[in-house]
Each structure stands twice: as C-alpha cells, then as structure tokens.
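Trying the structure run again after the queue cleared.
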Amino acid sequence: MDLLAIAAHPDDAELTCGGTLARAARQGHRVAILDLVAGESGTSGSAAIRQREAARAAAALGVRFRGNAGLRDAHLHNTDETRRTVVEWIRHYRPRTVILPFPIGRHPDHRIASELARDACYLAGLARYDANGRPHRPFKILYALAYREDPVKPTFVVDISATFARKMKAIHCYTSQFDGAKQAGEIFPTGQHLYELIETQSAHYGSLIRARFGEPFFTQETVEVQDVVELGVQSM
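Done. Tokens:
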C-alpha cells in the first residue's frame, strides 16, 4: 500500500481523513483502511451492521482494501498481544505512509489506537520481532487532526474540495450511527445536524489554505520544502 489509515472503529477514518483517502485513491495510489475493532460495544447498530456499512463506505471513497484487526471494542489496550496483531497487519499491507488518530481524545479507544498503532509501526520493522510477515517499517506517520478543540496548529491541510462529496457519501453509509445524530467520536454537538457540522468543520480547515474544504494533519517531525518559490497559500 501507498497509504494506510489505521482507526479504532469503522467510520473513524471516514470522519477524520475520508477526503484525503478518496483523493489519494483518485491520484492512483493504493489505499487501505484498517479498523482495529468492529464496534460491537457501540450504543447503536451491531458489529455485523457496521461491517456492511464499512464495506459500502470504502467503496464510496474508492478504497479497495479494508481490514479489521478483531480487537475488543471499548476494551482496547496497548499490550504485547495487540501490538503483535497490528504488526502483522502492517507487514501485510506494507504502507509507505500511515494515518493515525491524534494521540489525545475523549474516547479511550481513539487515544489507545494512536499509541498502539504508532508502536506497531516501529516494531513491524524489527527483523527479529516475533510476528508473521516480512519486516516493514512505514516511512511516514501522519496524525489526523480533525475536530480538535485544543490549540494544535496543523502541520498541513489537504485540499479535499474535489473529494468532499465522496467523503460525505461514505459517512452517509453509516446510517446506524449517524442518522439523526448531532455528535460523533471527537465531534462535539453545536445544535447542527452531524452532517452539517462536518461540512462546517471541513470548510473551516479549507479556509486555512484558501480552499473550499480541507482536512488537517499533524506530524512530529518538520516538513521539508524543496522549492520556496512554489509554496502555496497566499500570505496577504
């Protein structure tokens, strides 16, 4: 894979980076999603329903590959056993770039998924680590920064204006979770319907790069620029 999004639950990737995944797929990259749990502990729907919704959502994004690690929903932990499971998925997909949840969040599974997947990305590259598959360490780790309330400035924002409709089509696939909803995951309610709230948030991120819609990302390392003359986003 060129790009792999690792998320806690089915629908998390669509909410936080669905437009970016759709854009990468349209650009010809091999894109995959790995959900760590099936969502069996959620208040609405069931694991079977959410699996069907996830398959339809991936198709809406143009993402051909989607897996589920089969870990326990609402009981996600960063342990030797869970790390080994995620390592084997990383070695299976062999991505160059990985998108992870932001390490801070109100949902415990989101926070643990970020830490667990980050550790697994490193361990997957160790030749003597006792897990199935050939060693492979992703080159780049990105953290999806969508819907943050804390003052974390994005390292960069991806213009998803051309794929926003695909993102929303994918989110609409999760009828068991979002029909009539006014909040989800890290998205706090404002009184708007969830779909309207997502559009508002995406428009805000887009405005940061002078685009209609955008998705924000954070990296721990500094981003390299090859040509300062070609930098985008007008300063004044």
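The first strand starts at residue 3 and ends at 7. Worth checking whether this holds up in the mutant runs.
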